[in-house]
Amino acid sequence: MHTGLDSPPRIWWIPMHGAERIWVTVAFAWCLVLFAMMPLWHLKGEQNPSGIRHRVEPTRYYQRVQEFIKQYRVGQEAGIPVVAPPPGSDVYLLAQMWKWTPVLKLQRGVEYTLHLSSLDVNHGFNLNPVNINFQVVPGYDYALRVVPTEAGDFRIVCDEFCGIGHSTMVGKVLVVDSTGGAQ
Ligand code: CUA
Predict the structure, then answer these.
(1) DSSP line for 11-56
(2) How open is the CA angle 107-108-112, to the nearest 5 degrees?
(3) What does the mean pLDDT of the chain come to?
(4) 140, 117 in Cβ contact below 8 A?
(5) Among the listed residues 101, 89, 94, the one whose alpha carbon sits nearest the alpha carbon of residue 59
(6) What is the pLDDT of residues 38-72, one digit of tens each?
(7) pLDDT digits over 105-137, tens only?
(8) CB distance 106 to ligand 1 below 6 Å
(9) Ligand 1 within 6 A of 94 CB?
(10) Contact at 8 Å (CB) between 153 and 177?
(11) Which candidate, 4, 18, 116, 127, has a CA 20 to 30 Å from the CA of 60?
């Protein structure tokens, strides 16, 4: 009869087999390579942008978005204001259950500082059809320097589960050629 008081059979601390030792070493070395790739890829790969992150009260951010809308509003689409900010400006996008405000109208080849934050819970900014993803977190204003490189009609799909209306949380970004920027 086996009880917890008996020592286990002593085979599990016999020395590692040679092949196992090699594979553990290979796996560990690979872990170090991948670990080093994280900062290297950030600096060299141009894939992971460096954002500017500040704490912000969600209600303050909400107010800032309203000011931004009032300042540069050019229309409305399905109840959501359409905003065309000038080149080089700060652009504010608000995520909340279950919409993105406002619809952004940007010019191609122009730099903007895109601010992302949430009024309530975590949301995911996923720009389609290009594959760009960011976490949108309440309490933080995450700002990215962006230059739209293609003209077109893009959708922002929420890719962080945020409740019953999650699958309907779709926003819009229009990128127009600078020459035809007015409309
Ligand atoms: Cu917002 Cu899912």
Answers:
(1) GGGSPPPHHHHHHHHHHHHHHHHHHHHHHHHHHHSS-SPPPEEEE-
(2) 65
(3) 90
(4) yes
(5) 94
(6) 888 888 877 777 788 899 999 999 999 999 999 99
(7) 999 999 999 999 999 999 999 999 888 899 999
(8) no
(9) no
(10) no
(11) 127
Helix (H) or strand (E) holding 93: strand 90-96
Q: Which two tokens stand for residue 61?
A: 């951010």
120 three-class SS: coil
Of 81, 63, 60, 61, nearest to 72 by C-alpha is 81
**108 CA distance to ligand 1 centroid (A)?**
27
Q: How many whole angstroms from its chain centre is CA 103?
A: 17
- Alpha carbon distance 183, 165 (integer Å): 32
Residue 38, both tokens: 């994280």
- Integer Cα distance of 171 and 98 in angstroms: 10
Radius of gyration of the chain (CA): 24
Tokens of 165: 């209306």
Predicted pLDDT at 93? 97
* Cβ neighbours around 61 below 10 Å, total: 22
